[in-house]
Every structure is written in structure tokens, then in C-alpha cells.
Amino acid sequence: MKIMITGGAGFIGSHLCDEFVRTNNQVIVITRSTTSLDRISHLKDKITLERADVTDYDVLGRIIAKHSPEVIIHLAGETSHSKSFENPLYDLDVNTKSTLYILEKIKQLNLKCRFILGSTFIVIGRPQELPVTEQSVCNPTTIYGANRLASEVYCKIYHNVYGIDTITFRITNSFGPREQFIPSKNAINFLIHKAFKKELIPIFDKGNFFKDVVYVSDVVSAISTIMEKGRPGDLYWISSGNKTWFYDLGTWLEELTGTKVQYVESPQYTKKTDVGNFVVDNSKLKSLGWSIQTPVKDGIKKTLDYFAKLG
């Protein structure tokens, strides 16, 4: 199968490339010219690489027309909610207009193509009730969340009006090898890296909150399952379906590294934008035959091993 991945040199995209190459698919990666290729350098002879920013719509359109992929997995975008406030118009371009452009290009070219949008739990905002499901009300607290939600709606509209085969998935807090370890990008990897470096592990508010945390290999198997078995027009949650309390996370990191937790008060920005306690009912995804394979603590061990290999 010919699969195009925007943002294919990123955290999740690079792991998807590994999986799709392993299963003998033809993989086309679109990534920005400024993006490092370290995550996919081992695949350079096994994939087709296209350098383009997804906000350069003319170039993006030519690449889609050139390859006529059977599947497009759209992962490219700005994932920092803090940066969405710093440059909201760029966030709109990269996280919303790019989706609309690809959908329109599929329509114009009359491509027989499955379009899969990668979205985020941030679109929910602060949940009205837990666990969250595909039917939960969305009230995003950030510009990033609002833009991702708009992209989801575009997919639904293009499916309903034009019959385009669109599917959306939302990922909760994912972590693992190859992800950045700065707090604005990935809080879990940031804490694991702090522990690995034998530095104090800063956890907000005594760790008295929980998130739905999922290891990257389970994200990849979930996306593969959705690509193969997902129903056109549908939305699926990718999550562990379990509560990970952050005081437990801190305890695991102390046990595994000997480093100590330092509890700190959350900043005002976080208090205004954080979605609070979060857990998902992922039974819809499980109905496709998918299940979690890596518990969070095991994923932490794998990520620590990855940092150790980096040196």
C-alpha cells in the first residue's frame, strides 16, 4: 500500500514509518526542510522523502498529485499549546488550513484515498464528566485545541458532503523513545529525562492528578488498526483507558533511577489552560481488535533504556 505521512520525521511519524516499512508498504514522508532526519535516518533507502512545509500549499498539492497515495496520515503541525498563543495565525495555518487544503486536494483530484487525521485530547478542554468518550462535549482551553477541533470538523464535513474516506483519531498523553524532552512538547518524557539525568523531578501539586498515558508502540499499533479497520467518517480515541496518577509516576521514577521528586506549585498559565484529570473510555478502538500491550511503568523502563543508549 502507498502511504503518505505528513510529519513523518516526527516522534509518532517516525515510529509509524518503521512499522509500515516492516510490513512492506510504500512510505512517502513529508517533512519540513528544517527538520532533522535523525529519527528516520536508518530508513533513508526504504522510504521516499519529500521536503515541504504543509503551509506551502502549492508544493504540498504537487506532492500529493505526484504520488497519488492510497492513504494520507496527517500528523504535521505545531503541537505546543503555549506556542499557539504566541503565534496564533501560524497555528491556524499549520493545524487547520493544512487539513482543509489536503481534503480539498483529495476532492479536486478525485483520489481514492483514505485520509486519517491525527488529533489530540486537548480538543476536549476540561471534561464535563469522566471517562471521556467520542461523544463528549468539546470546549478547548487553547488556540491549539480549537484549531485541531476545527480540523476534525472539516474531516466530518468532507466525508458527509463529498463522500471522502476520512477518519480522525485523538491521542491522550503519549511518550517514549525519539520524543523531545522539553515540558512544552511532552511532560512525561521531560520527567523521565530529568530522572535519567539524576536531576530533581519537578511534579506539580503533589502529584494529586491523573492523566491517560499511553506508550508510543501502542499508539502505532492503534493507528495501524484504525487504518485497516476503521469505519469511514468515524472518530477513535487512542489511550490506555487507565488513570496514571502523577504521584505514582514520581514513585516509579524514584524506584527506577534513585532520583528524588520535588513537588512544586503549578504556574498560573497551567492553571488556566490545563484540562485537569483525564481518562478515556477506549472501548470503540478495542472493538476493532486492538489492546494495550505496554503498561506505563514498562514504557518508562524502555524510555530510560533509550536515553542510556543515546549516552
Descriptive terms for the model:
single chain, 311 residues, alpha/beta, 7-stranded parallel β-sheet, two-stranded parallel sheet, 11 helices, 42% helix, 18% strand, globular
Provide a descriptive summary of the structure in words.
The chain is 42% helix and 18% strand. Strands 3-2-1-4-5-6-11 form a 7-stranded parallel sheet, with helices on both faces. Strand 1, helix 1 and strand 2 form a beta-alpha-beta unit. The longest helix is centred in the N-terminal third of the chain and has 22 residues. The mean pLDDT is 95.
Secondary structure topology:
Blueprint: E1 2-6, H1 11-22, E2 26-31, E3 48-51, H2 57-67, E4 71-74, H3 81-86, H4 88-109, E5 114-120, H5 143-162, E6 165-171, E7 173-175, H6 187-196, E8 201-204, E9 210-211, E10 213-215, H7 216-229, E11 235-238, E12 244-245, H8 246-257, E13 261-264, H9 268-273, H10 283-286, H11 296-310
Parallel strand pairs: 1-2, 1-4, 2-3, 4-5, 5-6, 6-11, 7-10, 8-13
Antiparallel strand pairs: 9-12
Helix pairs in contact: 1-7, 2-4, 4-5, 6-8, 6-11
